[in-house]
Write a structure and sequence with these properties.
113 residues; alpha+beta; Arc Repressor Mutant, subunit A; 5 helices; 3 strands; 12% strand; elongated
Length: 113
């Protein structure tokens, strides 16, 4: 089981638009750096930096095939996280009817945003 600090660390590591895009692609299968360059609008060195960070934290790994580095997911939690991030919810959660501590009155006014 992951400790609370490991959970928070994982979320910090993947919390970047480029890294989320990389992980979404890796949920579809193995990819090489050139594959990432095709759909990401960033330089190859920048792609490599993101891949290196994900690898350093054991989220992904790679194997070498000739001159290519082929990346794959290593952390089994990533596909579940990506699936949740892509889930579409039709409605927000309902506001509470009253304060759960005091149980007095009804929820006053509109929900703040």
């Amino acid at each position: 089981m992951r400790s609370l600090s490991k959970k928070a660390e994982l979320l910090k590591i993947i919390a970047h638009p480029v890294r989320i895009s990389i992980l979404e692609e890796l949920t579809k299968g193995i990819k090489c750096v050139s594959d990432f360059e095709e759909f990401l609008d960033i330089s190859q060195p920048n792609v490599s930096q993101h891949l290196s960070l994900l690898r350093k934290h054991d989220v992904i790994d790679y194997y070498i095939d000739g001159r290519l580095r082929c990346y794959f997911l290593k952390d089994p939690l990533i596909p579940d996280i990506i699936e949740l991030l892509n889930k579409v919810y039709e409605e927000e959660l309902p506001a509470p009817a009253c304060c759960p501590v005091t149980r007095k009155g009804t929820y006053p006014g509109e929900r703040r945003r």
